[in-house]
Amino acid sequence: MCHEALSNEESLTNRFAKHRIKVLVIGSTGFIGSRVMTELDSCDNVEVSIMTRRRYSVPNHPRIKVLLGDVTDLTSLNLAIRDFEVVVNAASYVGDDPLRAQQVNHLGAENVAHAWKSSGARKLIHISTTAVYGTGPHRSHPANPTVYKPDSVVSQTRAAGEASILNLGGIVIRPNLIYGPGDQWFIPGIIRLFRTLGTQIDNGAAKISVVDVADLGRLVSALATSPAPLDGAFHAANPTPTTLARLAYTIRREVSPLQIEGTTTLDEAVRILEPAGFRPHQVKMVGMDHHYESQNLWDLAELGKTSPTISREAVDWYRLVAKI
């Protein structure tokens, strides 16, 4: 989605619509960042550049410029960001190394925030996660005010990083569970969960906020290309939560056969799944309510509602690439 303008002032609208917006995407090789890059590159009024740690060409995107830089290196960030109007930071680390998590998620985000503020760029959009709230249940959870209760070291560093962005006036986008081409964890994890458990959890009643990575790219692109001044935190999810039962039905129909018989309690599911490598909070993320107020972001982006469905592109990804 490419906004020409969201201003009520006609003069600003005309001026912005004729102007090519220079946007820098950090973390463009990742699951989310690559989709944001693609969506922005489809906008006629946007000039996209990406910042990476090593130079390479971007297949299928010949217009995109590649800049060298690293979120852990403030000097390289200052050089990269200085010529842009909008910066999108989708860089994150989700592995098990606490030091690397601190360097990228906390200090890296802090560096991006300071480099952005020093550059005079108009807008900074930072991609975070609802994991900063910790384990729920969360029911229609608001984005503001933020109460951080992260469970893991990685989530702690992401909470600290996004706090740096918010403190300097940036925009924070918090998705919950994301699916689509490139997803290595959510849908593959659900399939492995049900294949291990063989039964539903509490009749599949848990309500869960999910978002297609394509919709997430459209939402971020719309905010990046809007002339409206924005700051604060927003949730990125389909406004209507799905249920675990509905999710299992969709996966079984579209992606992979699942043998699910009967139901068990969440506590019992945690007990059974933990020896198979599932952490308790991973089971609880889908076995109890985790849904978030997200209509506000769709309204600001001026995007129509979509239903939580798995696209043909995503089905092909899960079947052929993720080998489900």
What does this structure look like?
There is one protein chain. This protein has 12 helices and 15 strands. The chain has 324 residues and is of the alpha/beta class. The strands form 5 sheets. It has a 7-stranded parallel beta sheet, sandwiched between helices. The chain has a two-stranded parallel ribbon with strand order 6-15. A two-stranded parallel sheet has the order 8-11. Strand 4 (86-89), helix 4 and strand 5 (123-127) form a beta-alpha-beta unit. The longest helix is centred in the middle third of the chain and has 22 residues, at 98-119. It is globular, with a radius of gyration of 20 Å.
Helix-strand layout with pairing:
Elements: H1 10-17, E1 21-26, H2 31-41, E2 46-52, E3 65-68, H3 74-81, E4 86-89, H4 98-119, E5 123-127, E6 138-141, H5 153-167, E7 171-175, E8 177-179, H6 186-197, E9 200-201, E10 207-208, E11 210-212, H7 213-224, E12 232-236, E13 242-243, H8 244-254, E14 263-264, H9 266-273, H10 280-287, E15 290-292, H11 295-301, H12 312-321
Parallel strand pairs: 1-2, 1-4, 2-3, 4-5, 5-7, 6-15, 7-12, 8-11, 9-14
Antiparallel strand pairs: 10-13
Keywords:
324 residues; 12 helices; 7-stranded parallel beta sheet; alpha/beta; two-stranded parallel ribbon
Q: How big a fraction of the residues is strand?
A: 15-25%
Provide the residue-averaged pLDDT. 91
What is the number of helices?
12
The succession of helices and strands, N to C, reads HEHEEHEHEEHEEHEEEHEEHEHHEHH
**Backbone CA Rg:** 20 Å
| Structural class assignment | alpha/beta
Main β-sheet, spatial strand arrangement: 3-2-1-4-5-7-12
**Separation of the first and last Cα atoms:** 31 Å
Number of strands: 15
Q: What spatial form do the alpha-carbon principal axes imply? A: globular
